[in-house]
Amino acid sequence: MKYNKYKVSSNMKEGMKVKVNNTRGHEIIIDEPESSGGIDEGMNPVEITLASLAGCLSITTSFLAKKMKIKIEDLSIDVEGEINKKAMTSTEVDSGFKEVRYNINIKSDSSKEEIEKLIKRIEDYCPVSDTLRRDIDVKANYNLNNS
Q: Cα–Cα distances in Å, from 117 out to 33, 65, 70, 104?
């Protein structure tokens, strides 16, 4: 079976600011708000997770709509989730989202049946949604560079 490989690399900057690059030359800044010790120059990691889902759902919707010959005039997606406030200070609570919810807002002249079929297919094709829905192995390694 063939797989596409994706890779990003991060570099810690001042405070909690992190610069993340991919292999295609794009970069994002991840940071925490000042109230959490950051300088608020970017979304925090959990907001990036929600943004990744929103972006993936949007791209998947656009791709499938073209394939299904459904014209979309406007598309927006709202994503939200909650994390226990104690997550960063206690190992007694799960540190991830308990639930993530999204609402797809579509403006289209297509029939309700066509849009419902599109929505069902989005659920089947979105890789970020699929990743969030199931257990996956996350394997860690580290390198210690002493001066």
A: 40, 10, 11, 13
From residue 94, how far is each of 36, 88, 127, 134 by CA, in Å? 19, 10, 23, 16
- Categorize the per-residue pLDDT at 147 as very low, low, confident or very high, splitting at 50, 70 and 90: low
pLDDT per residue as tens digits for the range 7-22: 999 999 999 999 999 9
Q: Which CATH class is domain 44-133?
A: alpha beta
One-letter amino acid for residue 145 of the chain: N
Tell me the residue ranges of DSSP E strands in 35-114.
72-81, 100-108
Length of the chain: 147
- The pLDDT confidence band at residue 146, using thresholds 50, 70 and 90, is confident
Residue 53 CA, chain-centre distance (Å), reads 4
CB-based contacts of 27: which residues, under 8 Å, 6+ apart? 19, 20, 21
